[in-house]
Amino acid sequence: MGEIDTSEQLGGVSLQQIVTFLTIAETRSFRAAAERLHISQSALSVRVRQLEAALGVVLLHRTTRSVHLTLQGRSAQTSLQRVCSDLQRVVRDLRDEAALQRGSATVAVLPSLAITLLPGIMQAFAEAHPGVEIRLRDADSKSALAMVRRGDVDMSIQSRPDQLDGLLFERMFDDEFVVVLPREGASSRKRVRIEELRGRSLLLNPRGVDLRESLESLFAQAALTVSPTQELVSSSALVALVSAGFGVTILPKTALSGLQLSGCRIAALDPKASREVGIVVKPERSRSPPVLALRTFIPLWLDALPAQAGGASQARDLSAS
């Protein structure tokens, strides 16, 4: 209803007419205004008459030698200058956003990925587009999906959910699960069969975390019962307990980046298992240029990791399948 009322109230008034009136009001000359707008004086006069007819008031009093604003003209000049300034700012901001000079993208991300992959992605993206801000919100997979579905975030970076319910998942890489054991007393074997964990003190994520659900399935296939002695969300806390000799844990490789692993030994899990990590978006949601740019940038950044050095190559090693 509001849109209909606004359309009716502005009927017959165009931006072209408003700019013409403001130019005349500034120059106080039809000739100077016509030259500035690159139109004839007769076309200028037509626009002014159309605007006055649409408003129902006289805005300008013109003599052969001068142009004066009427009382209504002075009032209109003040208000329309403010409106045009606001419009110019909106146009400038949108053009800057389209050119990736400004704007933002809000991303929900798993805590383990927020610690490992996102700092590198954000740093590289900021170097390419310093005016664009990435806003992070850490969340577990289910919460991240809910944020995407509600429109609270533009995208999420997470493991593939069992049920997408209309959302779109774009795979980026496979994140292999590894066994983290206490270094003291551990064998030097590079692989640990899941059956060998029978009777060990398991330190795992609690139920409700997608990793725990994946591990429950793996243990069930091996006819093993999952009975963890400790259940913690934090990967760093689980690794610290392993280092102190309280048991073993199973984590994705990316979750280990930056953690204190001197008291631990890392072994591959047999049979091999992993989670798919990717971007989740809402297909029908229109995306701003910064969001589209980030969505395109992340896979390209991951693909370019082998050509980079230092921390980037370490991140590649952690995320490679």
TrEMBL record:
InterPro entries in alphabetical order: HTH-type_LysR_regulators, LysR_HTH_N, LysR_subst-bd, WH-like_DNA-bd_sf, WH_DNA-bd_sf
The HTH lysR-type domain, residue ranges: 13-70
GO MF annotation, one: DNA-binding transcription factor activity
A GO CC term assigned to this protein in UniProt: cytosol
Listed PROSITE patterns: HTH_LYSR
Record bears the keyword Transcription: yes
Listed transmembrane segments: none
Protein keywords: DNA-binding, Transcription, Transcription regulation
Keyword field contains DNA-binding: yes
Top-rank taxon, per record: Bacteria
Organism: Enterovirga rhinocerotis
SUPFAM superfamilies: Periplasmic binding protein-like II, Winged helix' DNA-binding domain
Family as reported in the entry's similarity comment: Belongs to the LysR transcriptional regulatory family.
Official protein name in the record: LysR family transcriptional regulator
